[in-house]
Amino acid sequence: MKEENSRGLFSVPVIVAALGYFVDIYDLLLFSIVRRPSLSSMGVPDDQLFTQGEFLLQVQMTGLLIGGLIWGIMGDKRGRLSVLFGSILLYSIANIANGFAATVNQYAVLRFIAGIGLAGELGAGVTLVAEVLPTRLRGYGTTLVASVGLMGAVLANFVAKQFEWRIAFFIGGGLGLLLLIARVSVFESGVFLKLKEQTVQRGNFLQLFTNGPRFKKFMGTIFIGLPIWFTIGILVTFSPEFAEALHIDGVISAGDAVMYSYIGLAVGDLSSGFISQLLQSRKKVVLFYIFLTLFMFLLYLFTPGRSVFYFYVTCFLLGVGIGYWALFITIAAEQFGTNLRSTVATSAPNFIRGTVVPLTLSFRYLRGQFADSDSGVIYGALIIGVFTICVALIALTAIQETFGRDMNFLEKD
């Protein structure tokens, strides 16, 4: 890559967006990591840690779902930077407050508020990066943002091991507030500033439903990511319970499972991003990684190894399999015009995160349909996982190939 290209790639908007997503991932996954110790400290019995954890995860993801819509529309109406500032301020304050939670209900309210705040970071950051970088660097830029950001899971696990869970939430909130200072140096997208000068509807969410092809494209953009959040929201978040069902010989830490899977996800994002640039295609690479995800979660559910080491290896491989997350976000930003781009790029990843709610409810129902609880955990997840793969494959046919697309266009009725 030429030197001038590298300077563009490592520009201030890209670096700050990557750091923002880093803090976002730290705060988003911290609950999954400290779920058990935090609930135990509140007096939740061991036999209720699974169900109460599911409840809190559903609440957080519902907040993400609602926040994705709010911040996405605001990003197209008010600008990308307004979302980057507002969202990080909200979730930073919510996470600091979370450190003072004393009951499950308080925990739930604060996870909901934090979820709303966390919803704005990634979509607005990727939209900004996609619009400020030249076409030849766009794929590298969004891949860099996602890959650096995913390492927030590693920091979250490290902090959770070193400090009590309440302190871990305080640290996350503090990191967010520090990031606000760095955000001062970021400039608004020139593409958006040109849009503001035109008399065109911006951030009209209903426009996604008033045109058949546009609606089909929007649904396809969302559901190609369904296997990703089945993997993160169920297989990884509840890894200790899966380890028990698989009779793993040893104790599995949810934090370590999250960390290894996100290291794998970063590896997958880097590789899928570069392969996409090499092949000059988004869709071909996503298709490959969807099938790779299927193979990896079958390996996870029917692992031939029973050691703790082997289980963590399969968590890493799960992450590699779902390593098309950066491409998923890039496709969302590239599919739609400037007046709807933030709305889609912010709502799509959070809508797909929000599917964790029906997925976990379905998982709970299917677990109860088997006489043996271990079989219920394994085969319930298998049924849901295969379903998400089928949905993603169908959704992939509904989206357009966007590699190399000029971002300076509008959505019109």
Rounded radius of gyration (Å): 20 Å
The first-level CATH class is given as Mainly Alpha
Categorize the overall geometry: globular
In the CATH hierarchy, what is the architecture at level 2? Up-down Bundle
Q: Give the strand content.
A: under 5%
Give the total of beta strands: 0
- CATH superfamily grouping: MFS general substrate transporter like domains
> And the CATH topology?
Growth Hormone, Chain: A
Question: In whole angstroms, how far apart are the ends?
Answer: 40 Å
Largest β-sheet summary: none
> What's the total helix number?
20
Question: What structural category characterises the helix and strand content?
Answer: mainly alpha
Order of helices and strands: HHHHHHHHHHHHHHHHHHHH
Short summary of the structure?
The protein is mainly α.
Please tell me about this protein's structure:
The protein has 413 residues and is mainly alpha-helical. The chain has a single domain (9-185, 207-396), classed as Growth Hormone, Chain: A, CATH 1.20.1250. Helix content is 77%, strand content 0%. The protein has 20 helices and no strands. Helix 2 packs antiparallel against helix 5, helix 12 (226-236) packs antiparallel against helix 20 (373-396) and helix 13 crosses helix 20 (373-396). Residues 1-7 have low confidence and may be disordered.
